[in-house]
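Quick entry, no commentary yet.
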Amino acid sequence: MSSQIRLSLLPRARCMFDEPVQVKVAGLRSRQVVTLRARSTDEKGVVFSSSATVRADGSGRIDLERDPSLGGTYTGVEPMGLLWSMRPDTLHKRFQRTKSLNPHVVKFSVHEDEEEGGMLAQATNERLLIGDGVIRRPIKEGNIRGVLFTPPGEGPFPAVLDLYTFGGGLSEKRASLLAGRGFVVLTVALYGHEDMARNIKEVHLDYLEEAVEFLNKQFKVGSKGVGVISLSKSGDLALSMASYLRGVRAVVWINGCSANTLLPLYYKKSQILPALTPDLSQLIPTESGIFNAKKVLNDPRAEENEATLIPVERAEGRLLFAASEDDLNWDSKAYVDMMVERLQRHGKDNFESVCYPGTGHYLEPPYGPYCPSSLHGVVGRPVMWGGEARSHAAAEVHLWKKIQEFFRTHLSCDATQTKAKL
């Protein structure tokens, strides 16, 4: 490596996972063409990497906020392109980062513009999932299995239940990042975690009601009611909570369904919604060996499936529907249209929606690697998730900000609420 060439990560090399970082290089020759690379390893040991071929300016400097990539895993001016364009070294692997205590470490480097060009400079970016002062507390209370994240400071803070649930186990990433933004967040597991069943055949709304009641009792919580954030299958659980339970003030539904999917839903020992089931014969194979699963879930509008539709008009809280227009898991945009029509038919206006063109199924907190395909837990085969990397990455940045604004607006806090719990 050359001591004259410097790779800088600004404003600092240690930042939150959901914060952008500015990549700069200095000390190159005038107009020198180099390759910038980024490399990281996820929790499962899968290596992700990206590259960009960039030409320095007349002073031998590169700034990815100004200078375009001429080739590599992305092209054009994309300040965070080296992060979202990372690709796994094994096909059909989704980036896994579910634990909050260990940072996501990304190694950036500058190389001479050749396939195996020598390294000229390097820097390490530690992307934290849990912010300074955020308290992480594992919860094993009553039936609840999860982790509670509490922001620093006296509060009061709005409360959010994170239903990042399907696939089993527990994911802390989104919950811990939201806590760093000023929310008390409980993320819960439905199955496959600690002493819970490895698999389930039904979902009980009572469990999620218990989680809401637990959140409301936390002494730093000042919101009158809780918010719920979901993704995919848990979108219908969030809508069912808003429709059947008290105290759900705001729901973020991300690429879910308008019907209760996959497993029957029970409340107080009675089934309240049957399951809309998949038809695996509708899987469409592609030449590359992966599958298109968009038509696998049966049509909730068909007469025989009407009983699975969630009576979303019963919801008193605010609803934010976020849909990817190129979602290949199922037709999220069509489900939004169905729910909007149903709500309007019942004279309701407690909703807003945002649709993102060119985006796929997994809309996550920003700056993680885009996932075009991976193993589908229900289908049991690798499937395409839809979208393209650039549009998907931009949508994640926009939606992450919108989610926080939505919860702050509709989960107003009252300091007297917290004092009453002390």
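second:
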Amino acid sequence: LTEVSVPLEALQPLWTSMNRKSWGRKLHSSSSAEDLLQVLASLDGAIKIEYLSSNFETTGELLYSSNEKGRSWSLIYVAIVNMLQKKLETQKNKESENFI
């Protein structure tokens, strides 16, 4: 489990409380690697550039980079997403078992 904190002043003005709540719901309900990638990419775009490290690379840049660093991050990302997908499937199975 990874926990990240982004200061409010680091977020673009369009990233309102409503947008944050919507993003959280989308993150929580993500059920595929593609869903997770879209959610992460939307957060990338919400952070003001001046708050990012000079060597920061967006989710998309890391996944589609042709250099060795990009390929390494892509492999790590795929492994994490696979792990999260299995966890989501397990949770959904438990919820359906409890429902029956």
